[in-house]
Amino acid sequence: MLRYIAFADELSAWFGKVFAWSVVVMTLGVSYEVVVRYLFSAPTAWAFDLSYMLYGTMFMMAGAYTLSRDGHVRGDFIYRLWRPRVQAAVELVLY
């Protein structure tokens, strides 16, 4: 069972690092769209679809990596005041 968990963690880390590069591709695509649309008045048909699909994919694929690194944003100012048992229950329900 520990081998499976280690494999899942390694796979999650690999996917997180690979899909982190989709942010760069998405940024370049949207930047290109802004320049072409507002400077040359020639909008593209693919830029919105590219950013829409890449963001959705990045959100789903990088979520496991972020969860494994305990990197999700939460209201720590409230969360840290709770007992460990309540924290565990909240994490169980929200994740």
What does this structure look like?
This protein is mainly alpha-helical. It has one domain. Helices cover 80% and strands 0% of the residues. The protein contains 4 helices and no strands. The mean pLDDT is 87.
Number of domains: 1
Residue-averaged pLDDT, rounded?
A: 87
Radius of gyration of CA atoms, rounded to a whole number: 19 Å
Structural class from helices and strands?
A: mainly alpha
- Percent in helix: over 70%
The portion of residues forming beta strands comes to under 5%
**The biggest beta sheet, please?**
none
Number of strands: 0
Task: Describe the SSE topology.
Layout: H1 2-40, H2 47-68, H3 76-79, H4 84-94
Helix pairs in contact: 1-2
Short structural summary:
The protein is mainly alpha-helical and 95 residues long. Helix content is 80%, strand content 0%.
Task: Give the tags.
mainly alpha; 4 helices; 95 residues
